[in-house]
Amino acid sequence: MPEAYSDDHVELLEILKREERASVGYESDQIYNDQINAFKRYIGENYGDEQPGRSSVHDRTVFETIEWLRPDLERVFVAGGSAATIEPWAPDTSEEAEDASDYLNHLFTEEMDGGKIVDTLAFDGLLQKRGVGAVYWRAAELGEPGVTQGDQFVIEHLQSQGAEILGVEPNPENPEMATIHYQMVIKQANPEVKCIAQEDFRIASRTVDLKRPRYCGHVERHMKSDLKAMDEFDTPEIHALIDEYGMSNDESAEIDERRQQRFWDEDEMYHQEPNASDETEEVRLYREYIYHDKDEDGYAELLEVFRLDGVVLSCEPVDDNPYFSWTPIPIPHRWFGLSVYDIAHDIQKVKTTLLRGALDSVYLSVAPRQIANKNVNLSDLLTVRPGAIVRTNSTNPVGQDVMPLVTPDMSGSAIQMMEMVDQQAERRTGVNRNAQGMDPDALNKTATGIKLMQNAASIRKEQIARNLGRGLEMMFRKVYRLVVKMTDGPRSIHAGKGEFKQYDPSQWPPEAKIKVHVGNGSGDRESQLGQLQMILGMQREMVANYGLDNPIVTINELHNTVEDMMRVMGQRSADSYFNDPAKIKQENPGVLEKMMAPKPDPKQQAEQQKMQMEQQKLQMDMQADQAKAQQQAQLDQAKMQQQAAADQMKVQQDAQNRQMEMELKREQMAMEMELKREQLIAELQLKREQMAAELELKRELGHASVNGSANGAATSGVHVGGEPG
Question: What is the pTM of this model?
Fold first, then answer.
């Protein structure tokens, strides 16, 4: 008979079923109904009070609040790539603790998809009061076994390629060679984190936390063939139990309305979908942890139990349960806190009512109701469209048979009231419109007022982030324990820039103090950068005053500040921009020693600088006077040269002037002489002409006298020019 049928397991099975039925949030209690309604309000499902012909729109306050919080929460824990910090566990273990922190953060961000884990946990907690996850050890994924011949070098080469050595058989003929049985490791063994839906999680009622719950567990869903292939259940006896007790996908297997509500738009199709074969049927596996006195020694041990609905498959004692959880607004001494739905669903209902009323008021003002008597064709009256005709059976004026029932538009009052309700929602949830990007109304407000409102909103969001950080601390502690317990040797991970670094978790202590730092009112990214820049400024001032070898701020602290600034900016590491001083010290210690060489006393250095400045000033003054004297001498010499040149030019000009005057006088005298000569010639010519004229006149007169004498003239002779000749 299989072990699952023992009397002890039968009793244990009944206890487990009773605990499941009595667990908090199971089936029909208030928390169960709240989680169903929360999903309805998140997806905007109808309330059920909608009326035909009236507005049926929905406000989405729950959805908007959750979706504004989710990216902020994910950015806080994932953006910098350093979510967890392990504190040193003993003196001189700071370097080992830093290595352990880097290794855990690498697993979280690279191997586990930490962003998805944080986002899913945040969503579950914000909507359904609690976000729950579990940490398991995932075995290595191996390839096909292989056999080869080789020596120790071949064995080391196979191990470097990620192979697992299954066995080595010496070769009697050649002692240096051996037959090596190996199996390639496709995927290394690592911790695995799974987020668990609330409808699948079980915990004993009146439980406060996960430290020592009397009962807790969850439901896993597997294909029947996958369940049989698991190492824990890979036996013919358990296969037979799975075939007999495995519950298929029928209506009785899906009685939890929370799961039906999660798949509200595909649930009916899911039940109607036929399975391809029996081996692909979905089987519900219960993984539960309960304190039970199995060995009857008077003390209850924590047992890990795998069961189906009617049979226990395995039962083993364990040290701890694998679960971690968080709640957005915790209530002390209680498992479930408050979700966004709990604090905002009434606001969403009020805003939905106001929004519907405002729209109805607008509809009635645009298309008002009509008052009509029996003479009006009611069919025509009920047809509301532009240009529609309304017929009447009377000859009365139209205003006597039908008239509009005027309804005032009250949408403005409803919208004003919605604004007041929005302010109430902002105070409750911490999600402020002024912290949601570029809000148009915020442009007309002062920067200081907006900053105060943003800080007030960020306080509530940071409180929610700190609560999520406590849940992640629990997760990191469980991951750390598994890593230390299950890792059997050094691991090599990529450290950036093509370099790999080895870590050996097996050398770390089994317990360590892990912190997830969220910040203490640090504000947005710009504020954090401003604070880090202020710290960097103080560090630089300290280094400037006391040098890099001072015991308060060294080059390591400066590098830490720069690295924090890079992480706030969203960079995983500062290695791409700044070299690590520890690495430089290891590779080239002389460089750092030269940088950190003792510097002279600042006061003495200041006096020396002052004396040097005064000496330089004196030298500069002397050089200036000398340059001034040289410049003056050059100016005087240039002035003398200019004067001499001017005098020479004057002498030359005077000589030229005198020569020009002499030439002018010479030319004037020549002209005068020429003029006198021409005048003399003209006078002589004139005299000649006068003399010729006189001679001619005399000749004519003499000729006339002769002619008169000859003609016997009786007149006396005329005498001209004196006495007759």
Answer: 0.71
